[in-house]
Design brief:
Layout: H1 58-68, E1 81-90, E2 110-118, E3 133-141, E4 144-151, H2 164-171, H3 187-195, H4 200-206, E5 221-222, E6 227-230, E7 236-245, H5 254-263, H6 267-277, E8 283-292, E9 318-328, H7 332-337, E10 350-351, H8 356-372, H9 451-459, H10 462-477, H11 482-492, H12 497-507, H13 518-521, E11 543-547, E12 552-553, H14 554-566, E13 570-575, E14 579-581, E15 583-585, E16 589-591, E17 593-594, E18 605-608, H15 612-619, H16 624-633, E19 637-640, H17 643-652, E20 664-666, H18 671-679
Parallel strand pairs: 11-13, 11-18, 12-15, 13-17, 18-19, 19-20
Antiparallel strand pairs: 1-2, 1-9, 2-3, 3-4, 5-7, 6-7, 6-10, 7-8, 8-9, 14-16
Helix pairs in contact: 2-3, 3-11, 4-9, 10-12, 11-12
The chain binds CIS-heme D hydroxychlorin gamma-spirolactone 17R, 18S (HDE).
CIS-heme D hydroxychlorin gamma-spirolactone 17R, 18S binds at residues 75-78, 81, 115, 117, 134, 136, 149-151, 156, 161, 164, 224, 339-341, 357, 360-361, 364-365, 368.
Length: 689
C-alpha cells in the first residue's frame, strides 16, 4: 500500500476549495506534462555519449522551455510579500448595518487568504526595510469574493489616483542607476514630498516606528478609504475598516532593522510561517467605524480625503469579528504570487465612497493583472476562484480553463432559456445622488495638509517623537541636494516646530525661521489611540534566547523554560555551538542556535541559564559581550538565573545598568517578573550606550 501524503494538521479545518488543484508527488512516477512516464531525467539525448544533443529530445525541450518561462512580472508595487490561509468569523449578526452574508452568522467561518507586503522594494528585497506594509485580505464568501486591500497605516500619501504613478516613480529606485533598493531615503522621494504637501500626514506615519513592524501579527491593518455599508433596506452608512492585532502593535528599532536586513532578510516572512507551523495562529479583530450619512460634514476634515483618519476618540471602533491565520501555503508561487486582489471585488452590503484615490484603484488592479498574470482569466487560478459558482457569458482568452457548454454565450438569449439570468437579489450599487460640472480640480475641503500630521505628532510619546526625528534625519542624510533637505525641514515646521528644529539640528540645516511656527497654524488635539505605547502588551509569541553551555543548571532551566512556554513565550536554546548541550543536572538540551549561526537581533529577550561551568564557557565566548550589549541597546529584557552572573556578565559586556532597570532581572523567582519584562517588549527608560 502506498503511504498517505503528509498533511498539515490544519489542513482538515481548511476549506476544500483548493483540493482539486493540489498535487502530491509522493510515490508517483515522473512524467512529462502530457503524462508520459519518464525513464531518465539527468541526461539530454545525444548522438554518442560525447556527441551533440539531438533536436528530437522532446523531454529536454519541454523541461527547459518551462524553466525559461518560470517567472512572471513582479507586482509594480507590493512586490515583496508573504501570505497565509485562515478564516474569518463574525461576533454577531450585523444585519442592521449590512446585508453582507459573511457578517450575519457568528457560527460561520469564511475562508480567507491574507497577503502582507512591503511597497517599494523588489520581490527579493529585505523584509525589514522602512516602508508601509500591505495588508490585503481576500474573503471567499458564499456570495463572491470580497477583497479588503489595505495597509498597516490608516492614510495615504496622495489624494487623487492621478498622482499614483508619479508618487511610485519617486519612491522606487532612481531610474538612472536603480539605487536605492527598497528605501525612501533618496532625493526623488523627498523632492516629491516637498512638491506635494498632501503627503505630510502619511510621511509622519512612514517616519514613525509603524513602518518597522516586529511581526505581521503585531501590525494593525486599515482599509484606508471610506467605504459604505448598506443594509437590506438600502440604508447606507459610511465606514472605515480596521484590523486590530491580538498581540498588540509593536515595532523593531531602527538599528535592529538595518542589521536584520543582512542577518535575516526574510525576518517577517519567516516569523509568519514559523508561527503558523507551530500553531501560534496570528489573530486580528475586525473593527468598523461607522458614520451616519447625515454626519458626513460633521468634522473639520473631509471624509473622502484619504490623507485623513477618523480619530477613534471621535468615532469609536466597534469590533465585529475575528480573523485567524492557521495554514501556510503549499506553494508560494501558486498562492501568494498568483493571488490577485482588487478593491472592486465587493459583496452585497458593501459599497464605495467617492474618495478619488479609491475610484482610481478600481481601474488599476484589474489592469495590472492583465500584464502580471497574462490575460483576462486570472480569476480562474485556484487561489483566485470564488467558492460560489460562476456563470456568465465571458469566454475564451489566454489560458481559459473553464469548459462552458452550449452554444449561447450572450445575454439576452432565447436558445438557452435566457440563462444565465440576472436575479433580483443581485448586487445593486447604492443610489447616491451625484451631480456636478466636469472638472479636473480638487475640492477645497482636501486642502488642509497639516492638521492631522500635527495630530499624529501630538499623539506620540517622547520616545516615539525621538524616533521620528531620527528617521527624518537618517532619510535626509541620504538626500544629496542640501536645498531639498532644507525644504523638507521648512515643510515639516508646519507640523511641529520641535520636529523641524530637531531634524535641522541633526542634519546641519537651518532651523526654520518660524520654528514654532507655522506650527501654530495646525495645533491639534491628540489621539491616544495613535500611540503604540497604548497598545496591548503580552508575552505571547516573543522569542527568548536561552543562553546555555555545558554544565548548565538543568533542573532550574527546565523549570524556567516551562514557565515561559506556559506564558506563550517561545524559548530557544542558544549556545557556543549547535547540538546537544549537557547539563550539570537534569535533562540535556539541543542548542537551536549558536553565536556563529544566529544573532541577538533575532530575539526579543535573553535569559542566561545558571550553572558555574556554563557561565564560565559563555564568558569565554568572544561574541557574548556584543550579544548582550546589543540586546541591552535594543531595550530588550535580559534575565540571569543567578545574581552573581548578572554582575559578572554585564560588566564583561560593558553595560552600565541604571539602578532599577525593569528590563534587567536576576536571581530566584525570576520567572514571572521576567515574563512581565518580556511582555513590555522594550525598556525605554534605558539610555542607549
Ligand atoms: Fe495599491 N496597487 N494602489 N494601494 N495595493 C497594487 O495591484 C494602486 C493603494 C495595496 O498583496 C497593485 O495587484 C493605485 C492604497 C496593497 O497583492 C496596483 C493606487 C492602498 C497591494 C496598485 C493604490 C493600497 C496593492 C500592484 C492609488 C491601501 C498589494 C499589484 C490610486 C488602502 C496586494 C496589484 C497584494 C497593489 C495600484 C493605492 C494597498 C498597481 C493606482 C491607498 C496591499 O494595481
Amino acid at each position: 500500500m502506498s503511504e498517505q501524503p503528509k498533511r498539515h494538521p490544519n489542513e482538515t479545518a481548511k476549506t476544500e476549495r483548493l483540493k482539486d488543484f493540489t498535487v502530491d508527488n509522493d510515490g508517483q512516477k515522473l512524467t512529462t506534462n502530457t503524462g508520459l512516464h519518464v525513464a531518465e531525467d539527468e541526461h539530454s539525448l545525444k548522438a554518442g555519449v560525447r556527441g551533440p544533443t539531438l533536436m528530437e529530445d522532446f523531454h529536454f525541450r519541454e523541461k527547459m522551455t518551462h524553466f525559461d518561462h518560470e517567472r512572471i512580472p513582479e507586482r509594480i508595487v507590493h512586490a515583496r510579500g508573504a501570505g497565509a490561509h485562515g478564516y474569518f468569523q463574525a461576533y454577531e449578526p450585523l444585519t442592521e448595518l449590512t446585508e453582507a452574508g459573511f457578517l450575519q452568522d457568528p457560527s460561520k467561518q469564511t475562508p480567507v487568504f491574507v497577503r502582507f507586503s512591503t511597497v517599494a522594494g523588489s520581490r527579493g528585497s529585505a523584509d525589514t526595510v522602512r516602508d508601509v506594509r500591505g495588508f490585503a485580505v481576500k474573503f471567499y464568501t458564499e456570495e463572491g469574493n470580497f477583497d479588503l486591500v489595505g495597509n498597516n497605516m490608516p492614510v495615504f500619501f496622495i489624494q487623487d489616483a492621478m498622482k499614483f504613478p508619479d508618487f511610485i516613480h519617486a519612491v522606487k529606485p532612481e531610474p538612472h542607476n536603480e539605487i536605492p533598493q527598497a528605501q525612501s531615503a533618496h532625493d526623488t522621494f523627498w523632492d516629491f514630498v516637498v512638491h506635494n504637501t498632501e503627503t505630510a500626514h502619511m510621511v509622519m506615519w512612514a517616519m514613525s516606528d509603524r513602518s518597522l513592524p516586529r511581526s505581521y501579527a503585531m501590525m494593525e491593518g486599515f482599509g484606508v478609504h471610506t467605504f459604505r455599508l448598506v443594509n437590506a433596506e438600502g440604508k447606507a452608512r459610511f465606514v472605515k475598516f480596521h484590523w486590530k492585532p491580538l498581540l498588540g502593535t509593536h515595532s523593531l528599532v531602527w538599528d535592529e532593522v538595518q542589521k536584520l536586513g543582512g542577518k535575516d532578510p526574510d525576518f517577517n516572512r519567516r516569523d509568519l510561517h514559523d508561527s503558523i507551523e507551530a500553531g501560534r495562529c496570528p489573530e486580528w479583530e475586525f473593527g468598523i467605524q461607522v458614520l451616519e450619512e447625515e454626519d458626513e460634514f460633521k468634522f473639520g476634515f473631509d471624509i473622502l480625503d484619504p490623507t485623513k483618519l477618523w480619530p477613534e476618540e471621535l468615532v469609536p471602533v466597534r469590533k465585529i469579528g475575528k480573523l485567524t491565520l492557521n495554514r501556510n501555503t503549499d506553494n508560494y508561487f501558486a498562492e501568494t504570487e498568483q493571488i490577485a486582489f482588487h478593491p472592486g471585488h465587493l459583496v452585497k452590503g458593501i459599497d464605495f465612497s467617492n474618495d478619488p484615490l479609491l475610484q482610481g484603484r478600481l481601474f488599476s488592479y484589474t489592469d495590472t493583472q492583465l500584464s502580471r498574470l497574462g490575460g483576462p482569466n486570472f480569476n480562474e487560478l485556484p487561489i483566485n476562484r470564488p467558492m460560489c459558482p460562476v456563470h456568465n457569458n465571458q469566454r475564451d482568452g489566454m489560458h481559459r480553463m473553464t469548459i462552458n457548454r452550449g452554444p449561447a454565450a450572450y445575454h439576452k438569449n432565447g436558445i438557452a432559456g435566457g440563462s444565465p439570468h440576472p436575479s433580483a437579489d443581485g448586487y445593486k450599487h447604492h443610489q447616491e445622488k451625484v451631480e456636478g460640472h466636469v472638472t479636473r480640480e480638487r475640492s477645497d475641503s482636501f486642502k488642509d495638509h497639516y492638521s492631522q500630521a500635527a495630530l499624529f505628532w501630538n499623539s506620540m510619546s517622547d520616545v516615539e517623537k525621538g524616533h521620528i526625528v531620527s528617521a527624518f534625519s537618517f532619510e535626509l542624510g541620504h538626500v544629496k541636494d542640501k536645498a531639498l533637505r532644507q525644504a523638507v525641514v521648512d515643510m515639516f515646521a508646519n507640523v511641529s516646530g520641535e520636529l523641524a528644529a530637531g531634524i535641522a539640528a541633526n542634519i546641519g540645516a537651518a532651523s526654520p525661521a518660524e520654528a514654532d511656527g507655522a506650527a501654530g497654524k495646525s495645533k491639534s488635539d491628540a489621539s491616544p489611540a495613535l500611540s503604540m505605547m497604548n497598545t496591548v502588551k503580552t508575552p505571547k509569541g516573543r522569542k527568548v534566547a536561552v543562553l546555555v553551555a555545558g554544565g548548565f543548571d538543568g533542573a532550574a532551566t527546565d523549570a524556567l523554560v516551562r514557565e515561559l512556554r506556559a506564558a506563550g513565550i517561545v524559548p530557544e536554546f542558544y549556545s557556543t555551538r549547535l547540538g546537544p548541550i549537557k547539563s550539570g543536572s537534569g535533562a540535556d538540551v539541543e542548542a537551536d542556535h549558536s553565536f556563529l549561526t544566529s544573532d541577538s537581533v533575532l530575539f526579543d529577550a535573553v535569559l542566561v541559564a545558571g550553572g558555574e561551568a556554563s557561565v564560565e564557557a559563555l564568558a569565554a565566548e568572544p561574541k557574548l559581550a556584543d550579544f548582550l550589549k546589543e540586546a541591552f541597546r535594543h531595550f530588550k529584557a535580559i534575565g540571569f538565573a543567578r545574581t552573581e552572573d548578572a554582575e559578572r556578565l554585564l560588566a564583561l559586556a560593558g553595560i552600565k545598568a541604571q539602578a532599577g532597570d525593569p528590563g534587567l532581572l536576576a536571581g530566584d523567582g525570576l520567572g514571572q517578573p521576567f515574563i512581565q519584562a518580556v511582555a513590555e517588549h522594550r525598556h525605554w527608560t534605558r539610555q542607549a550606550q
